[in-house]
Give the backbone structure.
Amino acid sequence: MGQVSVAVCIAVGVACLGGARAAAPSRIAATQGSSAVVQEKRNRTATQKKIDTQLLYALYRERGDAEAKGVPPAELHVKFDAKRRALVSIRARVTPALLTTVKTLGGEVVSSSAPYSDIRAYLPLGKLEDLAALPDVRAIAPADEATTHRAKAPHAGAQ
């Protein structure tokens, strides 16, 4: 009985090692893909570091640079309007001059709040770096959308 258990353990071990070898190429590809992403992040300029990764990936895709920069093919969480402008949240010192600049860059200000240092606007992806280069701008990210939670109405006749 003991010899059978040892034989089963050896067989299972060999099967597991074979499976690990079969999975190795996909692990290598995943590692290479993730190392490309890490390298892309390391190579970002100071201006690009102010821009959220989701927006940069959308920009790279628009420019045709996504594959070269190792951008994963996953869906991006960026909302666009009919003019292909991204809905963004701009963390910045809100001034009339900055609001004018957003409009000059082809954007549309949806709302702004000086006390919260926030501007919500639709902005062309190709203008993100121009806006991020301004000293008053601290960060640009996809705008969060409001969510609500409703309780389900009781079924008719339920007591």
Observations:
- Confidence is low (pLDDT under 50) at residues 6-31.
- The two ends are 64 Å apart (CA to CA).
- The chain has two domains: 1-43, 46-142.
